[in-house]
Design brief:
binds manganese (II) ion, 353 residues, Isopropylmalate Dehydrogenase, binds 3-isopropylmalic acid, ten-stranded mixed beta sheet, 2 domains
């Protein structure tokens, strides 16, 4: 009998629904081939619902999301809502609520994809960033006082507990261990963040020495890391880093792998409910035009399958993306310049699973 997975689908804002539709199309093609089945339950979380009802994530929805096998997200972000409420109230709320403490972002240049880096190709650009996803400066610990007066001040503090750091490091070492070249680079800013950086640094070396002696350990300051990602991306295999640093370097990673159209990510709770999403955002100016690239959403769905334990089906989805790129039928990864519309790209990939 086919194995059935319960997937909560959050198409979200802007072009989110368009790319999620194509992701589902390719998921269904993989299901057919590998004898799986999916039940999808859609939730209309996002800017439109917020503007209409003032609701972000109702408690009833949170309770239902606790019962699914995985969550598939399009994008959150609405041009008529100021930055903050949707990102914090929906995206971070979900990540925190089900403790998706890992944000896994592959930086992989596929064949036939253009990178802005001169003389670098798929061999040089192939690594993984593991970003801590529930803690650090993202928790919002701190506060403000005297708002609107000359005495005004505000703080938002980078906090990390040893256990938060350890659980993230453990996942990162395990990922590093799976690669041919076993090398994990810790990225932080310990020359300035002497307390929290030192906590990460000691935890990293202690765990590595005790539990993962076969994984080579390296350390880069985050500013230097942005430099090396551009100059020598081949130095990296697996990177582990704190939440804010990971947010920043994964956008750089997306650009060197060909842009937001191809950059996929997973918000992972290794023992719980994970959420997969293209990292590109809602691209409001392209909404409804069928110009947006669905490959990142398709790759995220492939990561979801891998995470659900369907490694073969997940790899087949990724391979279908590679074949679609190799076919030369997709002219560019940029919205509006693909030479195909969003649906046609989805059809092409689905036909190649
Ligand atoms: C990301 C995004 C989010 C983040 C925003 C939208 C809250 O930039 O997933 O990288 O900062 O984590
Ligand atoms: Mn980001």
């Amino acid at each position: 009998m086919a194995k059935t997975y319960k997937i909560a689908v959050l198409p979200g804002d802007g072009t989110g629904p368009e790319v999620v539709t194509e992701g589902r199309k390719v998921l269904d093609a993989a299901a057919k081939k590998f004898g799986l089945s999916f039940t999808y339950q859609e939730y209309d979380l996002g800017g439109d619902r917020y503007l209409k009802t003032g609701e972000l994530v109702p408690d009833s929805v949170l309770a239902e999301l606790e019962k699914v096998d995985s969550i598939y997200l399009g994008a959150i972000g609405h041009p008529e809502v100021k930055p903050g409420p949707l990102e914090v109230g929906i995206l971070l709320r979900l990540r925190f609520h089900v403790e998706q403490y890992i944000n896994l972002r592959p930086v992989k240049l596929y064949p036939n994809v253009e990178t802005p880096l001169k003389d670098k190709g798929p061999k040089e650009i192939n690594f993984e960033i593991i970003r801590e996803n529930c803690g650090g400066i993202y928790t919002g610990a701190g506060g403000a006082a005297h708002k609107g007066t000359p005495l005004e001040y505000a703080t938002q503090v980078m906090t990390y507990s040893r256990s938060e750091v350890d659980r993230c490091l453990r996942f990162a070492f395990q990922r590093a261990q799976k690669r041919e070249k076993k090398q994990l680079t810790l990225v932080h800013k310990m020359n300035v963040l002497t307390e929290v950086g030192d906590l990460w640094f000691r935890a990293f070396h202690e765990m590595g020495e005790k539990e993962f002696p076969e994984v080579a350990r390296d350390y880069n300051h985050v500013d230097a890391c942005t430099m090396w990602m551009v100059k020598n991306p081949e130095w990296y295999e697996t990177i582990v880093t704190a939440n804010l640093f990971g947010d920043i370097i994964t956008d750089l990673g997306a650009m060197i792998q060909g842009g937001m159209g191809i950059a996929a990510g997973g918000n992972i709770n290794p023992d719980g409910i994970s959420m997969f999403e293209p990292i590109g955002g809602s691209a409001p100016k392209y909404t409804g035009q069928k110009k947006i690239n669905p490959l990142a959403a398709i790759c995220s769905a492939g990561m979801m399958l891998e995470h659900l334990g369907e490694a073969q089906a997940g790899a087949a989805m990724e391979q279908a993306v590679v074949k679609a790129l190799e076919s030369g039928k997709i002219k560019s990864l940029s919205a509006g310049r693909m030479g195909l519309n969003t649906e046609q790209v989805g059809d092409l990939v689905a036909s190649l699973v």
